[in-house]
Structure to design on (741 residues):
């Protein structure tokens, strides 16, 4: 028989130990009700929102690229680069990530649909949808199942085994941040698995070809054609595109690090998801995600991934509605005695980075939060 | 091997190059995505139109005048157009008869609100001038062709709409046209004023029946109203019962080839529990339980089904529902599709709610 209670990873105290199975199922029903409310009220206002965002982003991109035709003049370079950076961030986060989640499929508009969308990122849409929507969102924070935990190059949880490779993980993380879009593509390709000989060679080669073709296309666009179109401004336009891509990479990397790496986020044992109920799945999402607090502008620029908890509970609800359900979700956390992990962007980024540094060393190095075996037995009982 | 392909012209080659360049500059989108931001009605765009006027016809019917995009190829009177309208943010496609004169730079559809009709009620009561709608090119076989000069139209309710399209476009002043039209009351006759005016001008002979007071027309006794039925070519549009009766009568008389009918109300889809699921591309048909997901049903039958999380969150299993009804097992909500709709559904949380046809 499989156990029906959520099992935290061994070094952690179980923050949901006080909940009975019935509590967890009730929690699930309450969350279902929140979801129902949003679905019932989803309508023309939401559709107008996403169309406005897409329209605005395209206008911003067009005008920024137009301004960059004259990027020889420093003010044009600054304005154009800023506009292009913002445009790329919005395109990746509030639009691309969310459309590919199927958040807007209900509109039945074939142009804004998870099955047709392609984004300005090195990873092809279908590969991203597999590794992100399917693997990460289904197995969130399950050790050995959810590869988003450290992306296979870092140790971000005490319960991941330490290896000397991780000593340099602050450096790996910094490099990954700078080249994040390529990092994601490599990750979606499952290069690590391939190197260990655990993937079908032909399938891997086919996928790799597609990734390289997409990278070539995007690089041609950003680093060749648009600079050439700028004539005498070719070189500044090239640096503007490089800068915009770098800004987008750093920003998206920071925001995404805040979703599951900060202190207070729980990870889970592989066995704990055997026979998992709907309620237990919800509970795992609640404990495995962290929010970023801030202004509406911040929420928008993170693609509403600042509402990571709400997003993980309801990945297919329109992003513009997360803000509205956040207080209801928070109230549930309080009522069920759970911790709603949230903090400002600088705080959460710092917290995630601290973890990257701390866990580059083995657990017993210096002060650690390790729970002793007897303590754990007491908690798990 | 010899090829007979025409040699590309210089202009054609240049055009192809420009298009290729534009695509490279706009990847991963296509140039059209940006042009849509600027001019959604341009000729190369997906066909759309802008509502430029809405005229009330009766208490529950309006004529919607649409300026189609430059890609509109015109229509033949009697044809219909499929219109995609966003109702509560959801795109819904419906077919409506064109009632405008062919050759105008605007087109018109006339819509009667039917009970619980999502799109018709929206167009009649809530649509606003300026709204962009999606369009298909005009289609349909219900046209006059090279008709003889003796014509009979038999219509009921909003069945008058395609016929009005034909009447307004009739140029032959000497044509002998009879219109037999039924509606509940005089006020319910769509285009009542215009039809009566045509009758006064002698362009048509109008037989108007108000079913609230006169009762339904007995198709067996249509001769009482039109004595030279057999000599006429007849076009009929209205409820299925009326058309069935007409077809039976014309069949018995052996003049079925002189009858042209238009059934504009799609077959009403009523949601059931389970049903026959057809996977069109795999040529597989299975009987599915109301509690069984389409994903499970398809996989059990050996259909190559795309799948992912199997719990409704990843959208990896989405496939088009060509027609039929499915039920979301999480909420109980029913989604229906008529031919041409191709509604995208999540097969891992949807079950058959009656016969349905999946594009896999």
């Amino acid at each position: 028989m499989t156990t029906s209670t959520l099992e935290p990873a061994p070094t952690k105290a179980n923050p949901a130990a006080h909940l009975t199975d019935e509590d967890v199922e009730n929690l699930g029903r309450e969350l279902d009700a929140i979801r129902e409310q949003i679905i019932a009220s989803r309508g023309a206002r939401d559709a107008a929102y996403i169309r406005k965002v897409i329209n605005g982003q395209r206008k911003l991109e067009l005008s920024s690229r137009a301004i960059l035709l004259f990027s020889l003049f420093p003010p044009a370079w600054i304005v154009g680069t800023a506009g292009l950076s913002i445009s790329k961030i919005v395109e990746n986060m509030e639009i691309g990530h969310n459309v590919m989640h199927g958040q807007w499929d209900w509109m039945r508009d074939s142009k804004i649909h998870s099955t047709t969308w392609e984004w300005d990122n090195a990873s092809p849409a279908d590969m991203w949808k597999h590794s992100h929507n399917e693997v990460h969102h289904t197995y969130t924070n399950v050790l050995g199942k959810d590869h988003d935990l450290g992306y296979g190059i870092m140790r971000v949880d005490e319960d991941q085994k330490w290896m000397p490779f991780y000593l340099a993980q602050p450096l790996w993380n910094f490099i990954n941040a700078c080249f994040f879009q390529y990092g994601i593509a490599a990750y979606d390709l499952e290069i690590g698995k391939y190197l260990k000989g655990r993937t079908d060679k032909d399938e891997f080669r086919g996928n790799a070809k597609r990734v390289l073709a997409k990278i070539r296309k995007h690089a041609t666009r950003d680093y060749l054609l648009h600079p050439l179109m700028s004539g005498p401004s070719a070189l500044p336009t090239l640096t503007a595109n490089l800068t915009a891509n770098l800004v987008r990479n750093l920003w998206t990397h920071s925001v995404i690090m805040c979703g599951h790496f900060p202190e207070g986020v729980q990870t889970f044992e592989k066995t704990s998801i055997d026979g998992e109920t709907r309620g237990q799945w919800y509970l795992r999402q609640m404990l495995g995600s962290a929010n970023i607090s801030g202004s509406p502008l911040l929420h928008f620029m993170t693609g509403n991934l600042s509402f990571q908890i709400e997003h993980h509970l309801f990945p297919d609800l329109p992003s513009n509605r997360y803000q509205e359900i956040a207080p209801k979700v928070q109230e549930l956390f309080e009522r069920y005695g759970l911790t709603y992990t949230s903090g400002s962007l600088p705080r959460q980024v710092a917290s995630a980075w601290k973890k990257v540094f701390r866990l580059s060393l083995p657990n017993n190095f210096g002060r650690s939060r390790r729970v002793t075996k007897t303590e754990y037995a007491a908690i798990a009982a | 091997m010899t090829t007979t392909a025409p040699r590309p012209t210089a202009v054609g080659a240049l055009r192809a190059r420009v298009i290729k360049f534009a695509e490279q500059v706009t990847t991963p989108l296509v140039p059209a995505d940006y042009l849509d931001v600027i001019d959604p009605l341009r000729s190369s765009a997906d066909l759309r139109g802008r509502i430029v006027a809405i005229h009330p016809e009766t208490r529950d019917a309006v004529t919607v005048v649409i300026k189609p995009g430059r890609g509109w190829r015109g229509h033949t009177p009697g044809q219909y157009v499929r219109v995609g309208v966003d109702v509560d943010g959801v795109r819904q496609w419906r077919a409506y008869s064109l009632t405008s004169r062919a050759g105008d730079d605007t087109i018109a559809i006339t819509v009667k609100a039917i009970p619980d009709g999502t799109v018709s009620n929206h167009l009649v009561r809530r649509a606003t001038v300026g709204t962009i709608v999606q369009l298909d090119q005009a289609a349909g076989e219900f046209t006059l062709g090279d008709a003889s000069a003796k014509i009979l139209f038999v219509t009921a309710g909003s069945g008058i709409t395609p016929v009005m399209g034909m009447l307004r476009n009739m140029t032959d002043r000497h044509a002998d046209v009879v219109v037999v039209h039924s509606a509940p009351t005089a006020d319910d006759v769509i285009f009542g004023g215009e039809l009566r005016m045509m009758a006064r001008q002698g362009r048509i002979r109008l037989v108007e029946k108000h079913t609230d007071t006169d009762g339904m027309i007995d198709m067996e006794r249509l001769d009482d109203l039109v004595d030279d039925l057999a000599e006429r070519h007849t076009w009929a549009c209205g409820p299925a019962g009326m058309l069935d009766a007409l077809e039976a009568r014309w069949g018995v008389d052996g003049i079925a080839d002189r009858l042209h009918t238009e059934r504009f109300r799609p077959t009403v889809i009523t949601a059931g529990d389970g049903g026959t699921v057809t996977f069109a591309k795999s040529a597989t048909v299975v009987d599915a339980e109301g509690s069984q997901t389409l994903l499970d049903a398809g996989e059990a039958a050996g259909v190559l089904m795309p799948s992912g999380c199997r719990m409704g969150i990843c959208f990896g299993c989405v496939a088009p529902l060509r027609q039929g009804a499915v039920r979301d097992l999480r909420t109980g909500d029913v989604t229906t599709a008529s031919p041409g709709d191709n509604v995208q559904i999540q097969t891992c949380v949807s079950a058959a709610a009656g016969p349905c046809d999946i594009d896999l």
Observations:
- The interface with chain A takes residues 21, 24-29, 33-34, 37, 86, 88-92, 308-309, 311-316, 318, 330-331, 343-344, 346 of chain B (CB under 8 Å).
- Chain B has a mean pLDDT of 91.
